[in-house]
Amino acid sequence: MFRAVSLAPQAPAAEWLVLLDGALKRSPTLFDDKAVILDLADLQPSATELESLIAELTTRRLRILGIEGLDAALPSNLPPRLVGGRPHGDTLEAPAGPEDKPGVSSLTIEGSVRSGQSIVHPEGDVTVMGSVSSGAEILAGGSIHVYGALRGRAIAGAARNPRARIYCRKFEPELLGIDRLVRTAEDMGTHLRGQAVQIWSDGGAIKIAALG
Fold first, then answer.
1. Is residue 74 a part of any domain in this protein?
2. Do residue 120 and residue 179 come from a single domain?
3. Do both 34 and 111 map to the same domain?
4. 98, 127, 130, 150: which could join 168 in a potential S-S bond, CB 3.0 to 4.6 Å?
5. What distances in angstroms separate CA 63 from CA 33, 161, 183, one per listed residue?
6. Pairing between strand 35-39 and 5-7?
7. Boundaries of each Septum formation inhibitor MinC C-terminal domain copy (predicted)?
8. What is the DSSP string of 102-132?
9. Domain assignment of residue 10, given as a range
10. Alpha carbon distance, N-terminus to C-terminus of the chain
11. Please, how many CA atoms are within 13 Å of residue 61, restricted to the half-sphere of its CB?
């Protein structure tokens, strides 16, 4: 089992690439040292369109480990088809019964997450008692709670959980993600900067509001 990031392009692909470029401009190391699974369930490109898309991603230094969600046959010169992917941490065996199914866990970070650190916990919520520095990353299958400043990247609902939320006491992030939705700092404005906020997904968009 290897850990990989799932990337799900949306149509039109050209506009999606513009959004990706915005995220990479703000966070150039976003995909550094990360293998990428290309989830094409929503895009369903033709063979020619897929080759063009992979070429575009390659120029952005994204390493495509495999492809999932595509109904059509894959050309032999492209990364392999992957089937039955699971969030990291799931077991391959089916549970013998309800009593054997592992419960959702939570992870608590007692201090702060420093620049360059990456906290990945796809099984449940992540709580950071301190701050998340610029250049740091939190990825959680559930919600993310930051009791200090959120200055790095926070991606909640990574196990395809659109009900996940992000909470922080001081709002200064580089990038936010809920399920498959992403917003960069340029898209957030400055009216809530420095405030305590909550972030959630609603109707296919990321919403941000002040807390209390």
1. no
2. yes
3. no
4. 150
5. 9, 25, 22
6. parallel
7. 109-208
8. PPPEEEEESS-B-TT-EEEETTEEEEESS-B
9. 5-68
10. 42
11. 10
Ranges 79-83, 97-101, 107-111, 157-161, most confident: 107-111
Per the structure block, which two tokens stand in for 196?
């305590």
Q: What is the model's pLDDT at position 27?
A: 67
Radius of gyration of the chain (CA): 18
Report the SS3 class of residue 46.
coil
Pair 182, 23: CB distance under 8 Å? yes
Segments of 98-204 assigned E as strands: 105-109, 118-121, 124-128, 137-140, 144-150, 153-156, 166-171, 175-178, 181-184, 197-202
Query: Secondary structure of the chain: what % helix, strand, coil (to 5)?
Result: 15, 35, 50
Name the nearest CA neighbour of 133 among 110, 117, 109: 117
136 and 186, same structural domain?
yes
Alpha carbons 165 and 157: distance in angstroms, whole number: 8
Q: For residue 24, is it within any domain?
A: yes
- Helices 47-59 and 13-26: crossing angle, nearest 10°? 10
Residues 6 or more apart whose CB falls under 8 angstroms from that of 118 comprise 136, 137, 139
Residue type, 25: K
Instruction: Please state, in angstroms and rounded to a whole number, the distance separating the CA atoms of residues 137 and 160.
Output: 18
Tell me how far apart the alpha carbons of residues 179 and 141 are, in angstroms, rounded to a whole number: 9
Tell me the whole-structure pTM to 2 decimals. Answer: 0.55
Which of 118, 89, 100, 113 lies closest to 27 in space, CA to CA?
118
Q: Which amino acid is at 12?
A: P
Give the model confidence (pLDDT) of 89-104 as tens digits: 333 333 344 444 344 5
